[in-house]
Design a protein that fits this description.
- The structure is a single chain.
- The chain is globular, with a radius of gyration of 21 Å.
- Helix content is 3%, strand content 42%.
- It has a 10-stranded mixed sheet, with helices on one face.
- It contains 1 helix and 33 strands.
- The longest helix has 8 residues, at 73-80.
- The protein is an all-beta fold.
- The protein has one helix at residues 73-80; strands at 7-9, 17-24, 33-35, 44-59, 85-88, 91-95, 99-101, 106-109, 117-121, 132-134, 141-143, 146-148, 158-160, 164-166, 169-171, 174-176, 185-187, 191-193, 196-198, 201-203, 215-217, 221-223, 226-228, 231-233, 244-246, 251-253, 256-258, 261-264, 269-271, 275-277, 280-282, 285-289, 293-294.
- Strand 4 (44-59), helix 1 and strand 5 (85-88) form a beta-alpha-beta unit.
Length: 295
C-alpha cells in the first residue's frame, strides 16, 4: 500500500477456527479491518481461536469438531486453547468437578432458550466445588446457559474475578459451611448481565454468618439482572444481604431484587460499600430486624 493510502485487510480462518483479533500495529476485533491512511510501515498479526463442540451424544475420545463433538464440557474447554470458543448443544451436562475457565475460553449454549443447556454439579456437600470458576480470564464470555446445583463453597454457582456472564440462569445453588459468601455468585471483578439468579442460599451452619444469598460482591458489575427468592440464612448479627451483599466495592444497577430474605441487615440488598443505581428492591423480608435494603 502506498504511503498515505488506505487499505482493507481481511483475516480468513481455517474451518476449525474463528477470527479473534488483530494486534501489532492495530489493536482491533474488526474483520475486515479498514485502515484509513498508512503513514508508516505497519505490522499486523491476526489471532485465531479454535471452535470446539459439545453434545450429549459425544464421546470422550472425540476430536471436538461439529461432526465429532466432545461429551465433557471440561474436556472441550481444555482442548479449545487460548481464547477458544466452546459451543454446547441442548441437554444436561453433569460434572463431579467445577468447570474452570482460564486463558479467555468462552462457553455458548446453542439452545433457543437459556434453559435448554444445563450445566449441573453433582458433587454436593463438597467444599471445593462450584459449578463454574472464571479465573484471570478477562476475555471469557459465558452465555445462554443454566448453571445449577452448586453446593458448599463461596459462590456455589459462579466464582469469578474476571470475564462476562450474560443471559444465563443461576439457580438452586447453596453454600453450606461456616463463614461463606455468595450462594449464587461470588465476584471480585468481571460483569454479570441479563441473568436470572434464583433460589440460591448462603447458609451458615455455625452462626459466624457472612453474606449474599444471591450475589456477594467485592468488585465488578451486576446489571440488568433479576435476583429472586434467594436467602442468607445465618443467626446472629452477621447475616447480611439476602439478595445481594456489596462488601468492599462493586456496582449493582438496573436490577430487580425481590422475594429474598435474611435474618438481619438487608433482606434485599446490604451495601456496605460500592454503588446501587436504579434498582427495584421490593417484597423482601428479614426474619430478625430490618427490611428492604441496608446502605
Amino acid at each position: 500500500v502506498a504511503e498515505g493510502n488506505g487499505a482493507v485487510v481481511t483475516a480468513t480462518p481455517a474451518a476449525t477456527h474463528a477470527f479473534f483479533r488483530w494486534r501489532g500495529g492495530v489493536d482491533s476485533r474488526d474483520n475486515p479491518l479498514a485502515i484509513d491512511a498508512v503513514e508508516r510501515p505497519l505490522e499486523l498479526v491476526a489471532d485465531f481461536s479454535r471452535t470446539v463442540y459439545v453434545s450429549t451424544s459425544g464421546s470422550a475420545e472425540a476430536s471436538g469438531s461439529a461432526e465429532d463433538p466432545f461429551k465433557s464440557v471440561q474436556k472441550a474447554i481444555n482442548a479449545a486453547g487460548p481464547n477458544g470458543l466452546v459451543l454446547i448443544e441442548p441437554g444436561t451436562y453433569s460434572s463431579g468437578s467445577s468447570l474452570v475457565l482460564t486463558n479467555g475460553v468462552s462457553l455458548v449454549g446453542c439452545g433457543e432458550a437459556k434453559t435448554d443447556v444445563v450445566l449441573e454439579l453433582t458433587a454436593v456437600n463438597d467444599s471445593s466445588k462450584n459449578v463454574l470458576r472464571i479465573q484471570k480470564s478477562s476475555n471469557s464470555v459465558v452465555t445462554n446457559l443454566t448453571l445449577t446445583n452448586g453446593s458448599r463453597s463461596d459462590g456455589s454457582g459462579v466464582v469469578m474475578d474476571s470475564g462476562l456472564v450474560t443471559h444465563c440462569v443461576i439457580r438452586d445453588c447453596k453454600t453450606y459451611m461456616n463463614s461463606v459468601d455468595g450462594g449464587g455468585v461470588n465476584m471480585s471483578n468481571g460483569t454479570v448481565r441479563f441473568c436470572d439468579i434464583t433460589n440460591c442460599d448462603a447458609y451458615d451452619t455455625g452462626g459466624a454468618g457472612k453474606a449474599g444469598g444471591g450475589v456477594y460482591m467485592t468488585g465488578g458489575i451486576v446489571e440488568f439482572c433479576r435476583i429472586r427468592d434467594c436467602k442468607r440464612e445465618a443467626y446472629g448479627s452477621l447475616g447480611r444481604g439476602g439478595g445481594v451483599c456489596i462488601q468492599y466495592g462493586g456496582t449493582l444497577r438496573n436490577c430487580l431484587v425481590s422475594g429474598c430474605k435474611t435474618y438481619v441487615r438487608g433482606s434485599g440488598v446490604c451495601a456496605l460499600s460500592g454503588t446501587v443505581e436504579n434498582c427495584l428492591i421490593a417484597y423482601n423480608r428479614d426474619t430478625g430486624a430490618g427490611t428492604g435494603k441496608k446502605i
